[in-house]
Amino acid sequence: MSYIVKNLLGFSVREYELLDSTNEEAKRIISEKNINPDKIIISADNQTNGRGRHGREWVSEKGNLFVSYIFNISKEFSPELYSYFCALAITRILQAHSLMPKLKWPNDILLNGGKICGILLEKHGDFLVCGIGININSCPDFLLDKKTTSLKDHNINLTKDEILFSLSKNLEEILSNYTKNGFSGLEKEINDIFLKGSAEIDLVGAKTKGEIICIDENGKMNFSTEQGIIRISSGEVFLL
Ligand code: BTN
User: Distance (Å, rounded) from C-alpha 170 to C-alpha 32?
Assistant: First the structure.
């Protein structure tokens, strides 16, 4: 698979025309010897096997953004937090265009209730792959029972290069803020976009009702149930 290499801020971008999945390519790169994969970005125009959470398909139509960032997390912070770092990096781009995105736990970005972006985190050895898909020009008509939308639907005309630049710049800023100030530097911003309220959570087959409260400093979602507050790092949420 041939690719073009570009430098972008502190990242090295590998641009492919076609891949099975940018996350899979990221994992292959991590497994290679003689290479430091930290801060490599994999981008593809198209994916033949784009994947979402829970092994679902991520419909990958040309014209949309499919990227994976690789971060070395061996000495750093809770991997779950990266999901919110990526979400913030994306929501800042949308807010700069006067849109009001919301974050549905764990990592769906919604505009007017429609999913515009999905994030898939996968740990591979000491590295974390943060796969991001953004609907720029098109979106599948439906994604299971979810509404979907695209930037085009909101009259935002950004190129893939412009989005990748802003995304990378925002991620750099967010990571540096976190390194300096810890979670308190980002807590308000994350919880402001976070959708709270009554919900049912599917925790590996067991459904529990309660209230979504916040994201805490370890990246756990705090969920208030009749048995007390539980702190969750993965699961499926149904807002009531
Ligand atoms: C989800 O909402 O379920 C997560 C979707 C993540 C899709 C992106 S597209 C780039 C990267 N490569 C993949 O195969 N998946 C992620």
Answer: 28
**Torsion on CA atoms 178, 183, 185, 188, rounded to nearest 10:** 140
Q: Give the tens place of pLDDT for each residue, 132-187.
A: 999 999 998 765 667 999 999 999 999 999 999 999 999 999 999 999 999 999 99
What number does the ligand 1 atom closest to the CA of 49 have? 14
According to DSSP, the β-strands at 3-8 and 108-111 are unpaired
> pLDDT, tens digit, for every residue of 50-80?
999 988 999 998 999 999 999 998 665 688 8
Q: Is 92 in the pocket of ligand 1 (CB under 6 A)?
A: no
DSSP 145-205: TB-B--TGGGT----HHHHHHHHHHHHHHHHHHHHHHGGGGTHHHHHHHB--EEEEEEETT
**All residues at 6 or more sequence positions from 178 whose CB lies less than 8 Å from its CB, including other chains:** 77, 81, 85, 185, 186
Cβ 148 under 6 angstroms from ligand 1? no
**106 CB less than 6 Å from ligand 1?**
no
How much distance in Å is there from the Cα of 226 to the middle of ligand 1? 34
Choosing from 18, 58, 62 the residue with most ligand 1 atoms within 8 A of its CB, the one to mutate for a pocket test is 58
